[in-house]
């Protein structure tokens, strides 16, 4: 049956043509690709056959576990396949060859995203299209899946989910009913200068959570991203985020296609591929590269045979030689060339429907002019009507796809009245130039078709694109313009318009949107365009817009590390005498934050800039050189007193006054920054002064988003500097946490971290701290505060479990995964975890003679340990290794170093553990050597432990009991009392689950019994306690210590 063309006059010259070719069929490009198809399928099957520890086919229920545990790693490798070749060589066809396999698997999904040369500056285009398709598939699936994904995203991302909606509007229908309708009480803050900080980390986390949720609904997901050579830097980073996500337990495969002839003009793609190759082993994904070459003559012949349904290869051999010579074996060119031959009646199908006929010489003669596929396509297009040619050019300016509603707006303004738009679209589809993709709009069948259309005539110039952009600005409503903002502004910017303030305003709007989605490079380009469009008198005629453009430009340039340009923009603002201090503040804050993220010298410069800015704001921090410590302590005492009065009056049931004065808010931002810098450059007294000022500002002027952090810091500092004022510290911490309950403060993670590290750890069970810190980790990740998130993660996954006596084997097993996760962000916390890991390994070994943190995992002599925290942890771990190796050496170290750990890391909860071990070692040697230098120091520690008990630390009762037992054991008159105390200490340690201290208490009890005498009952009791100690040490995993006690039993 003849295929009927639309009733458009352009078809009249070809009425007799019987169209037999479907050049859109993706399998047409696979002739001669058997090896490549096999390689691609083997990558897919490798992913599908990989074992998953979480269970095969993880569902959304898994994320309930993830929400509770916060850090779960996957054993299923992701697959990243790059398909490389010239345009039209069949990259997309090869990628689509596994679509059937994917969709045949239960819950499998194959989606496509495509990048565009015209939109190469627009962030996330291909990624957004692909995720949009996944969302549409989800919405068409079961209601339960939609609800589960929506609930998970709303819970994990909270307000951050709103930032994804402009990029992926299809997501709105999934999360809408789970987004809180009640407006949360968000503390006020200075916006400019805040959004950039942690922005990329926030987006990384958001994309990963979105991917995990969607990947739980569909598994496997195969994401085909075409024309990666035109991808923006932000999109390439998202690919990295997705394949390196160790917490996504489902199967994900990304197929990236790019043109080999154009990639060298965009080094960012090659750099991205190189980076991913380096990290693939560590992050459990596989990178495969496949280079496609043009088809050989034999493969071209088979393609022609398939198109014409001919089985005899000799029949088409001469035709194949001509086609191969004209197209050089490029599959897309071959298909277009064959289509041309058919449309020009150079290939004819006889009326009987039995065979094709052609004249080889005629084809040679009439196709001698064809040099490339674009020229061939343009030849086809020029035979269509003028209206279709015009519409093709308009559509090509809109990118790789376009919506009918958008092209309708343009056609009504710039088209003709001769033809109906829907008829023209039908003809374009009939001519196999575009395809209808439903809600995704219409797409070009190949980017070469779009390229041919846009260069069809000289009319498509800068002015042409500008007119399209201006039409869309006038016709689109606000919501539509926001959705199409990048496309519209890109069209306008190609108009070569020198001075247009209204276009500068649109570029500012686009830059702000790009910044909000972490596309800093795009934001820089929009600010550059906006500034170039400002009139000469811009500071007078368009003052606010000019100020915002220069400030935003400085912020974005700083984010990309372009200090010279950023300083030029800042100077343009700072030199304006007509700009107030507050108008200059956002640019100054951006500079300060950039400096505070650098080395020690840069941090000091940032500190000085903060102090200068405070003085300009009328809030100078005055101090005299040499009196800073005294000033800090005096200020702390006064602040504590004022805070106690304020807390006593504070009404917990009513909303407190909010800080709304912009100047006060700016001062708070600077004080937080001073505190941050002071901590990192070890200026503890400036840290005290800054936090005292934070609290005083809150008391005087109301709360803002950093008030809770300041209040809790004062509580912690008071407990350290003013000694054991734990009740005040706890009140501050609990009030700070309550202040954050109804807000979404960027400092929430830091507040929770300091609350539990310095305050609540003294009054809460460690297990309670773990639960709270798990939430703190998620909150910090959501806000992009990676530094805080990684400290929290290292603390509750390694440090607290060690103190609680969790099995060393389990800790050793999870440390490598933690290090990989943390090293992704290149943070100091990876060294922290490695040190603990090495300590665990040393304690596990059969011999624990070593007293240094040194081994295959970490070597303190080679690896950098140069910060107070790392030096403190090194001292802590070495102390424990010495303690479990030799009580005598531990006691000598205790005499020599005293409270060294507390001096390095004052107020940290690990200090109780470290001091307890020192006390036990000192008592052991006091009994053995009868020396007062051990006894006096041990008694001092015992008094400190009793004070801690009095202050309410709930998990150290066995510390107190064992030290009491050791103290009683010094006097023969108190042996009976000591005997009872040892038993109580063991019982207390067992009850709380600190297995290492259960072993220690049994070991010390045995030593006491052996010291008491040599009666049979005493010896039996000692052997029993030694056996119990060995059992506990083995349960903990300290095999070397257990072996040492076995030798003692034998002797």
TrEMBL record:
It holds the Pfam family AAA_16. Residues 77-254 form the Orc1-like AAA ATPase domain. SUPFAM superfamilies: P-loop containing nucleoside triphosphate hydrolases (SSF52540). This is Orc1-like AAA ATPase domain-containing protein. It comes from Cylindrotheca closterium.
